[in-house]
Amino acid sequence: MAMSGLLQELRCPICLEFFNNPTTLPCEHTFCHSCIQGTLVAQGPRCPECRATFLQDQLRPNRILRNMVDRVHTELGVGTCPKHQECLRMFCVTDQRLTCVVCRDAKEHYGHVFQPISEAAATSKEELNMALGFLLKDNSALKKLISLQRLEIQKTKV
């Protein structure tokens, strides 16, 4: 299996991000804990993949998969939390910094808004592209003004 295919296996089929607290159902399908909890509330106790029913107390953390995701994050250069030595998986919009899952759940971040890192990066990229568009437009307008100024200077010299 190619490396990109292997990395794909470490992604949650619901949010499409690397697993965050991977949780396995009795049917052996795995999802992020928060994703399966959201699905449980929205759609009831059915596996999003195979529709098999389950009880909430049948959810099990998948530590092996979590260790694999942590290892991939380390190999890919994803940072670790200096407080908890956990992978930085979330972006605290309120504080504008990367956090681990333990920090996210801590008292100091109570009520803060969080995004997966990839979502925060996409948002930042959109904002930067918009700013770049405005700058390019302004630059173009300034170049036109400079050209007009040069023409006026040439006319006054003649």
SS-based class = mainly alpha
Radius of gyration, in angstroms, nearest whole number: 24 Å
Using the 3D structure, state the CATH architecture of the domain at 1-78.
Answer: 2-Layer Sandwich
In N-to-C order, the SSE pattern is HEEHEHEEHEH
Give the rounded overall mean pLDDT.
87
Report the portion of residues in β strands.
5-15%
The proportion of residues forming helix, as a percent range, comes to: 40-55%
The order of strands across the largest sheet is 2-1-3
Number of helices: 5
CATH superfamily of the domain at 1-78: Zinc/RING finger domain, C3HC4 (zinc finger)
- Parts with pLDDT < 50 across at least 5 consecutive residues: none
Largest sheet: 3 strands, antiparallel
For the termini, the CA-CA separation is 73 Å
Pfam families: zf-B_box (PF00643), zf-C3HC4_2 (PF13923)
Domain B box-type: 81-117
Keywords: Metal-binding, Zinc, Zinc-finger
GO molecular function: zinc ion binding
Walk me through the structure.
This protein has a domain at 1-78: Herpes Virus-1 (2-Layer Sandwich), CATH 3.30.40.10. Strand 1 (22-24) and strand 2 (30-32) form a beta hairpin. The chain has helices at 3-8, 33-43, 63-75, 101-104, 117-157, and strands at 22-24, 30-32, 60-61, 90-92, 97-99, 114-116. The chain is 47% helix and 11% strand. It is mainly alpha-helical and 158 residues long. The chain is elongated and about 90 Å long. 14% of the residues are buried. It is built from 5 helices and 6 strands, in the order H-E-E-H-E-H-E-E-H-E-H. It has a 3-stranded antiparallel sheet with strand order 2-1-3. A 3-stranded antiparallel sheet has the order 5-4-6.
